[in-house]
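User: My advisor, Dr. K., asked me to get a structural model of this assembly before our group meeting. I'm new to this, so sorry if the format is off. These are the inputs:
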Amino acid sequence: MINMELTNVSKIYKVDEVTVTALDNVSLKIENGDFISIVGPSGSGKSTLMHILGLLDKPTSGVVKLDGEEVSFKNDVKLASLRNKKIGFVFQSFNLLPRTTALANVELPLIYGGVSAKERHERSKEVLESVGLGQRTHHFPNQMSGGEKQKVAIARALINNPSIVLADEPTGNLDSKSGEEIMSIFKDLHKKGNTIVLVTHDLDIAGMTKKIIRVKDGKIVRE
Amino acid sequence: MDTLETFKLATSALKRNKSRSFLTMLGIIIGVFAVISLISVGTALKNYITKQFESIGANVLYVLPGQVGNGQGGFGGGGGSPNFAGSKLKTSYIKEIEKIGFPITQVTGDIEVSSVVKFKNKQTRARIVGGTPDIVAFTAYTLNKGRFFNNSEVTSSRKVAVIGSEIATKLYENKEPLGQDIIVAENRFKIIGVLESRGAGSLGSQDSVVVVPISSAQTVFGVTNLQSIFAKFAGENQADEAKTKIQNLLLKSLKPEDFTVINQGTLLTSISAILNVVTIALGGIAAISLLVGGIGIMNIMLVSVTERTREIGIRKSVGAQNSDILVQFLIEAIFLSLVGGSIGIIMGVAVTMLVGKLIAANAFSWWSIFLAIGVSSLVGIIFGVAPAYKASKLDPVEALRYE
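Assistant: The format is fine. Below is the predicted structure of the whole assembly, which you can bring to the meeting.
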């Protein structure tokens, strides 16, 4: 089953009078259960690709299909709801809300999904336990290590059982031990059947995935 | 996302920046407070003056010396005529006006002088009112004990006095003032009556008064004429008739510029009109501070949106709708202005009560409170919309990149 499909997707930025082609006619198929890493030098367009996969950025041209349905980038309401229900995002810099407990951070997508408080607490606790943070639910981000913060972020990404989990340099800000822990969580998730796409420039990390996509100058050079 | 969740979210953000939230609110607090208290002062003043007029009784014409305004408006009243010294109103006019008969029912005249009064080694300042026994009907004086002077005592310029309750307590303390002496401008008067208190703390103190026969007052202060003449007439419809009759009578011996006849009703209407304008002007000036408070909210909300750009990006990346972000920031702004407004209302009402007590008149006006609530929530919405809209339209990718 095809999870996500990009057909002839381009992204062109206009900065003042200069046009920058961040993505140039990219076509890509991601199947359910895939564990993919996207690699490439900085400025290659891999982040833009990631943002389009995460429906955070809008392509200049081309078609994006998610679960067989074409995504309309004109409809902001629908886009937000797709991000909420079908996509889990993990960032390099964690992007947790400051001064907000781990539990409340994990609950965030459920709040926007309109889930009742009781159910939110239960589900968030469960997911935090599954990433090994059962004892840290009421800690604030500034009381946690980088690895723990990233685990909270993963829990938040998983809370709505998304179709696809996207991780942008998830180990980039972590020491190697924490990085390994995070990678082992991703490997577990893959074993459970989750679809995972990682962006990285670390070839060791990329080596742990099942498929590597190389991006250069806005084009996919090798799958 | 339901409203309760958004509300919790907004208030928790405000709680995180307690002192900033409070200072932002302070602008609204001061604005609302100023609007309510200034409007109350205006209202209280109007009610006080109306009450003063009403205590003299309805259907009263004033005859004042000289030209007072255009005979329609202008201040004068019983309190102090602008050119009392040059007054050409003779005491004999009281009797002459009385003789007109219908529609005129009762006439009196007075002089009022502020002077020091003494008893033994104690002294205080009092308003000395020289009048005829009929003055009681115009001033609503009521006796606590003793008696009022009569017409024969006026005719014979007897040195008798009826004192206000405040004079009684200040000069005689626990002693019985009846039968005691009181020194008014170096003249010895005998106290024959004490007035009932007319309410503590009145403007100019109504209880700090000494009422003496008009003739005695004139002798003591060396004046021959009256400060004002009051004439009651039968009914509202007779106002013009009574006025014309008094004018015609006085014109026999006086020139038109020597006196003015004013109808209390007309006077009250014009004073009310002036005070209404003053009240609205005061409220308007205060409203400017409310506007400044609103701009303060907008300013802090814009800062807050910039500061929380990354937070907005995070929220959008996990599925927050633009409307969720808009409402979140809008509620923050409205909350600030409503809570600030409520505190301002409480403080404003407290001052209103205080003013009411000091002036002994109702200072409370519902419309000032409704105005304050309306304006403060409006301020929140108007000044909150722009920053909230800005937040809701942020591009998620840009927002997440924001450091």
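One thing worth pointing out at the meeting: Helices of chain A lie at 46-53, 76-86, 102-112, 117-130, 146-158, 176-191, 203-207.

User: Perfect, thanks a lot.
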